[in-house]
Write a structure and sequence with these properties.
homodimer, about 160 residues, Arc Repressor Mutant, subunit A, Dna Ligase, domain 1, DNA-binding
Chain lengths: ~160, ~160
DNA sequence: CTCTTTGCAAACTGTTTGCAATGCC
DNA sequence: GGCATTGCAAACAGTTTGCAAAGAG
């Protein structure tokens, strides 16, 4: 699921129509390195296509998810749904300050399913999330040391 | 953070008042082995205290979280906030069918922070979540094989 | 030409907030 | 008695749904 054209072809072959809106959304998905929310995608697509509606973003993302062409994760900070263009196994780095999520390759040891600590669960996938602060937010926190609102927002989960 | 009395003492020493409502909420938290949502806690507390309000549940849970006495995680299935009476390092088993979350002990190898794949992030904690189907839901799925709605709900993330 | 998609508005869910009445210490 | 807490109602954020108009194939 790399290029826009591949997404378009795949989407079309599964019986869906290609519209300018969907083309623009696919483009943004391909370009994104973070895990955008619907609102994020909307902001970016709007730049070139001001009349697109947020509903169309939601609808399209949901269809992509249902086709298994993207994944979705929940942000812990704001509870919003984030979309992930990758559906293969990989881990996440989550910034507790700006809520940005980026991918990291799974360290080699990460795939082992826990033996019979699995409590009878049938496990189908695992996800490791590392929580911390991204470089930009670390810098910001250093620069603003002592300013109360910043402190509060940083240390509030 | 084991017994109700410990929670009460801790909460009180930090300058908060103890009310019957809070006592009842703490009780439920102590007893829970899953990770209840505010609504779950409300249902359980209501059984013995019918006049308690959902607002009080939310307020109390938020305070506990701010005091670091409980943790919170987001459910991927319904997007709701789930509360975790444990704040130490451990992993989660998540049922994709009923959205129940239970704890598992962290397998020994799990604590290593990824070397310099960490992209400049300052990592403060990690969380491993194993997604799958709990014993009860597996049984349910077997019993109802062939029934469409069940199939749909099972396989829709 | 038909059936899908769009985009508005309204509904909905989970959560938070404002505020008067109540209750803890 | 003073200040924190409760619980109602209303506000909110993120997401979904109903539906008429527009558009893809």
């Amino acid at each position: 699921m790399r290029t826009v054209e591949e997404i378009i072809t795949n989407f079309q072959q599964r019986g869906h129509k290609i519209t300018p809106q969907r083309r623009a959304i696919f483009q943004i998905i391909c370009e994104s390195n973070t895990h955008p929310s619907a609102e994020d995608v909307y902001q970016q697509v709007s730049a070139n296509m001001p009349d697109i509606s947020l509903t169309t973003i939601y609808n399209t993302m949901r269809e992509l998810k249902e086709l298994g062409m993207i994944d979705a994760v929940n942000a812990v900070g704001d509870g919003s749904l984030r979309y992930d263009k990758r559906t293969d196994h990989h881990d996440h780095l989550y910034c507790l300050h700006c809520n940005q999520i980026i991918d990291i390759e799974t360290p080699s040891g990460s795939l082992e399913i826990p033996k019979e600590k699995s409590m009878g669960y049938k496990i189908v996938k695992q996800q490791v999330t590392y929580y911390g602060y991204c470089p930009a937010c670390q810098k910001n926190m250093r620069d603003k040391t002592g300013r109360e609102e910043t402190q509060a927002s940083v240390f509030n989960e």
